[in-house]
Design brief:
Layout: H1 2-38, E1 48-54, H2 68-83, E2 88-92, H3 98-112, E3 118-124, E4 131-133, E5 145-147, H4 148-155, E6 162-168, H5 172-177, E7 184-188, E8 198-199, E9 204-205, H6 206-215, H7 218-221, E10 228-230, H8 231-245, E11 258-261, E12 268-271
Parallel strand pairs: 1-2, 1-3, 3-6, 6-7
Antiparallel strand pairs: 4-5, 7-11, 8-9, 10-12
């Protein structure tokens, strides 16, 4: 009888234990796949490029901005240390014309940028939900303003599937809504109806100030510690800081940063 029990144990029990192990492995694999789907991985970045624009003193407008040039200058310096100085173009005041902006995209970026590259465009200056006002802007006229349809046309020439626009200008949320697509994410300092405020104490736009602060704390804002700063990770840090800052000011002095894009968790602002 004991011999028979041993034989039955070998025939039935061992295969059952093996089956339990196989089932456990399958369940573990399914759990891993589900976690992966819930947490999209970032695009693998090859090279990183940036155009940084700041307009403070306008050629024709009497409404200058105080700190937009300083915003661009400091942000450009930070990006140059990460991207490489030859991968960053800085346009300020008299060099920040509509013609030069267009040339920076079509003549500088288009021949160089590949599909896996990051392209970042930063703008600080006057604007609204319909256009960005370059140095040679004539107010509401077509000349000197970069309108959404124009910028769309220029950006469509790029091969990059990882384009991030950061706009520190009034009404920028409305502008961003009109140029977003599956390969672009737009971070804006305000909604489409709000102003972007500047702070004398900071000598920066408030949105730009905390953007610059974020780049000093890459390891802090890199939530999943993958050495990539996604547009979502950057935005969450800056948005929280801006909203906390405005708790100090009485209404209507308020601005609400926005993010617009299909894949903010995947599009990479900085690989470090």
């Amino acid at each position: 009888m004991k011999a028979l029990i041993k034989i039955l144990f070998k025939v039935f029990v061992v295969p059952i234990s093996s089956l339990i192990l196989i089932v456990a492995i399958i369940i573990s694999s399914i759990s891993f796949i589900e976690r992966s789907l819930k947490q999209p991985t970032c695009i693998q970045v090859i090279n990183q490029w940036a155009i940084v624009i700041g307009v403070g003193n306008y050629k024709y407008l009497n409404e200058d901005t105080f700190y937009s040039v300083n915003d661009a200058k400091i942000f450009s310096k930070q990006l140059s240390a990460i991207y490489g100085s030859d991968h960053v173009t800085l346009l300020m005041d008299s060099t920040a014309t509509k013609c030069n902006f267009k040339a920076a995209i079509l003549n500088w970026l288009v021949p160089k940028v590949k599909s896996g590259d990051t392209v970042l465009i930063f703008y600080a200056g006057h604007g609204n939900s319909d256009y960005l006002q370059m140095y040679d802007s004539f107010g509401d006229s077509y000349d000197g303003n970069v309108r959404t349809n124009e910028l769309n046309t220029w950006l469509n020439m790029l091969k990059s599937q990882n384009i991030i626009l950061i706009l520190d200008s009034c009404g920028s949320g409305g502008f961003g809504d009109k140029i977003v697509n599956s390969s672009r994410v737009i971070l804006t300092g305000s909604t489409g109806t709000e102003k972007c405020w500047q702070e004398k104490l900071f000598r920066h736009g408030i949105f730009s100030y905390y953007l610059i602060e974020a780049l000093k704390n890459l390891k802090t804002i890199d939530c999943n510690k993958d050495n990539n700063i996604s547009s979502k990770e950057l935005f969450v840090y800056v948005q929280q800081k801006v909203l906390l800052e405005f708790e100090k000011f009485p209404p209507p002095s308020m601005q609400h940063p926005e993010i617009n894009g299909f894949n903010p968790e995947r599009l990479v602002v900085i690989n470090y």
